[in-house]
Design a protein that fits this description.
The structure is a single chain. The chain is mostly beta strands. The protein has 1 helix and 19 strands. Strands 9, 10, 12, 16, 18 and 19 form a 6-stranded antiparallel β-sheet that branches. A 5-stranded antiparallel β-sheet has the order 6-4-3-7-8, with no helix packed on it. Strands 11, 13, 14, 15 and 17 form a 5-stranded antiparallel β-sheet that branches. A hairpin with a 5-residue loop joins strand 3 (44-53) and strand 4 (59-69).
Amino acid sequence: MNKITLVLILFFSQIFISFGQSPQKFNYQGVARDNSGNVLPNQNIGLRLSIRQGTPTGTIVYRETHSTSTNPFGLFDIEAGGGIVLSGTFSAINWGAGPYFLQTELDASGGINYLNMGTTQLLSVPYALYAETSGSGGSTGATGPSGSVGETGAAGVTGPTGVGTTGPTGATGVGSTGPTGPTGPAGSGSSDLYNNTYVVYGSATLSLGPPQSSTYTQIPGLTQSVTLTGAAKVLISVNGNAQTTGTGTTYSAFSVGILSNGTLVPSGGTAYQVITTNTSVAQTFDDFSTQSLLTLGAGTYTFSAGARYEAAGGATVNISGGSGSALQGSLIVQVIYQ
């Protein structure tokens, strides 16, 4: 069985309903890949989530399972706290008694033979859940002493009951509506991580080589500009397909790289590929996948995918970018603020 890896994105969603009550769950998103870095599209998977207290190997205060499936890009979404409960009570977790750690286990075949994928500290407490257990006000102060009772006054003489006719109804008043009051200040809070995920798709096919090239050419459509409001981790993932145009016994060698503001990222983010043919199979296809995790400060960045021909000979290669069934590609940018 191939080793399965996960690219996990953890985020919380706050929805306030009547009487200030918050939902007992939070959203959890990930990307599943095999040991070659390829995504697992349209595949049923099984997940087991465990929340541990104190340390990554601490006491399990809650455990549940999920059965879900990935989309065409290996992405999946579930709600932690909304699965099949194995132990513990999600609503009883005291989020103020952390730290807490989330352990993820996966069965890529959709069963219950789980493989441990690692444990991650929950650095951001789900605020709406935390407020239910630790956001109460101070205690009620002591009751002050009662004042003395005053003297009872003498009873007055009861007057005769008056009888009179009902007066006419007065005229309706006339006046203009007052001006609208000023808008109150904007509330504060962290943004939902789902709003910080950007996906773009290829718009055309890029043909390369021969000859060999020393520069990367932009893959059409695979570019995304993002403005960061503060320090953040940025995960850039590129996926796609390629086709050699050679026939007989030939090959096409190329590489795909991730660029930030037009410059190849300093580490990771480059995939090298060779597509070969033989006398019985010509114009074969191959897929590619690469990613890079960057630590960046506030500012505007343009992330893109480029390709270049790596061999002096061989045949022309068509790099994905178009939306056809044979050749297609995508670029995903995920921002996690510090």
